[in-house]
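Worked problem 6 (solution included).
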Amino acid sequence: MTIGIGGSTQEEALGRLRNMLDGVEPIAIAEYLARIDNAQRRMKQLGLDAIFLSAGANLEYFTGVRWSPSERMVGAVLPANGALEYLAPAFEEGTIRDFMVVNGPVNGWQEHESPYRLLLDCLQRMGIQPNTSLRPCIGLCPSLPFFMFDGLRLLDPGYAFTDASIVTSYCRQRKTPAEIALMQRAKDMTLEVHKAAASILHEGISTTEVVRFIELAHRAVGAPGSTFCIVLFGEASAFPHGVKYPQTLRRGDMVLIDTGCRVHSYLSDITRSYVFGEPSEHQRALWTFEKDAQLAAFAAARLGARCEEVDEAARGALEACGLGPDYQLPGLPHRTGHGIGLEIHESPYLVRGDQTPIDVGMCFSNEPMICVPGEFGIRLEDHFYMDESGPRWFTEPSHSIDDPFGLAR
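Solution. The predicted structure is:
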């Protein structure tokens, strides 16, 4: 039997977990102000007059306001020079102020009024005047709905609009020590949850029951719950993001669990794959190929290397084992990894075509999954961050198919 798999009741496993949030502090106001300064410097370098930080991760990153996007325009106008101002429905002003870490005036619009007109009025009060011959350049977040962009564009042709990612993504890609510390804690918490989940497995347990347990386990270590959870048994594990039907665990099944949590808005995302029972030689061989591909990707993550080179290294390792090539199955059907921070998937990406140079502070998943249709899938997903000397693991990768959590050391 695989070490660490089974042997505990759910009550016993939950009883061993402890709250891991003691002493964990959120991002401080000084760091938010430094982020704004960094963005304004880059805006000046690139010739942007202002950016509109619409509801979502960009608004939260620069202001602390955590707000889900909807059909109502909410955000903050950040000029290249001067202080930011918020824009929101008038009835939401109190809530916006409650969320604020960075203070600023709130420009409120009534339900029958145009938020687009209000945003352009705000720009003009900031001294950014429309000009049809030399149009001021305003950055918009890619997540802003098209109808909002269209409303702004049609209202006044005296402004030019561009993708704000050249500012926002550039800033967010390079995590500070405070951000890395929050992600480290979230990942430590989720790894403990993985160990607990493995310990409760028994023949006949359903994927639905394991998902419910993982939610409780994340709460037990101090998280609000799971941000997501994928549990797959047997043939279903060959589908990277799961299937619509629950499964029941049988001896010899490959188990794939992918889950994460949030600590002060920063995310974890860890996948473990192992066998319930005794691995077959085929399962054992492919598990080893998967681990080798993960280590090849990690070794390729050098400062200054292009993100796509990491994907190339993982695919090369798998192709050397007779898998693939390219996206063909059995093999790796998706990119090797993604950035992570306030969003579970954010730029840059470890994928062909992403030529972003790897820089200090960047954080990535490393998950070159092997899918064998009709049989099973194996995904070992850990994350790493870049410091001045190269890549550093957030969590120690799985040790072996017989001892995935290193409990026998």
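Discussion: Residues 76 and 86 are 4 Å apart (CA to CA).
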